[in-house]
Amino acid sequence: MFAPLAPQGRLAVAALVAILLVLPLVWHDTYVLHLIILSMIFAAFAVAWNFTTGYAGLKTFGHHAFFGIGAYFSALISKNFDISPWLTTPVAGLVAACAGLVVALPVLRIRSVPHVAMVTLGFAEIVRVLLTVFRETTRGEMGLWGIPAYDGFTIPGLGEVVFNAAEKVPYYYLAALLFLGSVYAVVRMVKSPIGLALVAIRDSQDAAESLGINLTRYKLLAFAASAFMVGLLGAFYAHYILLLTPSSVLGLDLMILVIGMTLIGGVGTLFGPILGAFVMTIGVEAMRGIGEYRMLIYGALIVVVVMFMPRGLVAMLDGLGPRFGFGRQARPQAE
């Protein structure tokens, strides 16, 4: 369960957010900004998946379907009907949320974790195959290109904001907004009665039901909220990268990457998926020079963390918690 932060922990989080917002003003390297944008996208993705799996206990392996649905819906509608991505992006989130409800309905009848995993994974494969087969519309693995970028606008006193491949700063701040908004939404839900109900369902569905918790309502809510956030991220990804293939947004390796980020950072925690996403995104890019061998290191790291640190890297922060206020409320001093 989410542990409240001590005052010094809140100051540390505020400082990290301030650094995140100020960074592009002092560091203009487009490659570094690109890595941080991807890290924020995957961190928000991992946080949304962790909300369903870590807090609600619904072991879904098909969340990349919502990412792909959001990406392709926003890209195709904005491209073919000349509608601004600012409008198609939130609608893509709603479409992904509806898809989440469709997937959640059969999952409600299943209590076996492996079967839930296979149903959700099968749904993602169906979406990927459909997007691959309908080449006339999606161009399949040849790639959907010509996706419009976000429309620019003018901020009084600051000047014109332009979204294009060469200018990363506007995308950076939009990614930061999605990232911080996703984290804030999950924190609010986890700290509310909704979070208590989901944790109760995760720990024992029978006990939760005996306490009057509506399992159907809360499971649907968890799926829909998580799918909405992931769909938004997929739409943003489409209008940022400007090129989509089914394998790039619906490939199983994407889901494995997000699961690995969450496991390495710490499943069932708030900061774990964020830490894991930044470590893995930047770490994998740093090892690009060794080619496919980096995936060997990536797999070995997952094995080591799962075997020796089942709570993830964030568990190391627990040792610093009483001093810096991370992870748990600082205990009052004995009189």
Automatic annotation (TrEMBL):
MF terms in GO: branched-chain amino acid transmembrane transporter activity
Transmembrane segments: 9-27, 33-52, 87-108, 115-134, 170-187, 220-242, 254-284, 296-317
GO cellular component: plasma membrane
Signal peptide: none
Pfam families per UniProt: BPD_transp_2
Main location (coarse class): membrane
Subcellular location: Cell membrane
Classification via InterPro entries: ABC_transp_permease (IPR001851), LivM-like (IPR043428)
Membrane topology: Multi-pass membrane protein
Domain of life per record: Bacteria
Keywords of this entry: Cell membrane, Membrane, Transmembrane, Transmembrane helix
Name used for this protein in its record: Amino acid/amide ABC transporter membrane protein 2 (HAAT family)
Organism, as annotated: Stella humosa
Lineage, uppermost ranks: Bacteria, Pseudomonadati, Pseudomonadota, Alphaproteobacteria, Rhodospirillales
